[in-house]
Amino acid sequence: MDKQHLVAQLREHLLGVARVARSARDAAATEAREGATPAERREDSRTAIEQGSMARAQDKRLREAEAAAEALATFAPPRWGERSPIAVGALVEVEDEDSGEGRTIFLAPVGAGVTLEGPGGDGLFAVITPSSPLGRALIGRRVGDSIDVTIERELRSYAITWVA
After folding, report:
1. What is the C-alpha separation between 128 and 101, in angstroms, rounded?
2. Residues facing residue 124 across a β-bridge
3. How many CA atoms lie within 13 A of 144 on its CB side?
4. 3-class SS shares of the chain: helix, strand, coil, % to 5
5. Contact 97, 160 (CB under 8 A)
6. What is the mean pLDDT of residues 44-71?
7. Strands (DSSP E) along the chain, which ranges?
8. Where are the domains of the chain?
9. Which CATH class is domain 91-163?
């Protein structure tokens, strides 16, 4: 599996988030400055304040997405040996011990919540980070280990079935 393909896809997604945030920030800032006549602004300054707040929030989103994309620019996930402990950059398959349902996860430094597609459409990978409950539980574990994780106030047990 070419994990660099996943990194590039995740980086492109984050750059897309940054583009959307930049556009939203600029639109909100323009609306805050020019969205109403001077008389309307005096009567209802809340609109300008709300638009200014929206512009600041979008600017924060923009900066976070750009920083995350930049972090991925030099990220090179290592190869895993059969008994190597799980760390950032690993592809991990876990199986819910109750339902038997499997999930394939890409443990990345940034980009939690994004779903990536493998090269040539080969599978879907959920991106998690080491700061998530599942990410924290996986770090340092190996194939064959079981982990218990509380997700949405529910204790779940997973078996680690594959790591690459």
Report:
1. 18
2. 117
3. 4
4. 45, 20, 30
5. no
6. 87
7. 91-96, 102-107, 115-117, 124-128, 146-151, 154-163
8. 3-73, 91-163
9. alpha beta
Using one digit for the tens of pLDDT, what is the confidence trace for 125-142? 999 999 999 999 999 999
**Quick one: tokens of 13?**
């997604």
DSSP annotation of 86 reads: P
Averaged pLDDT for residues 77-103 = 91
CA 107 to chain centre: 10
d(CA 114, CA 126): 6
* 123: Cβ contacts below 8 Å, ≥ 6 apart: 104, 117
On the question of pLDDT at 70 being above 80, the answer is: yes
H runs (alpha helix) in 35-108: 38-43, 45-73
Question: What three-state secondary structure class fits 19?
Answer: helix
Query: How far, in Å, CA of 111 to CA of 122, rounded?
Result: 20
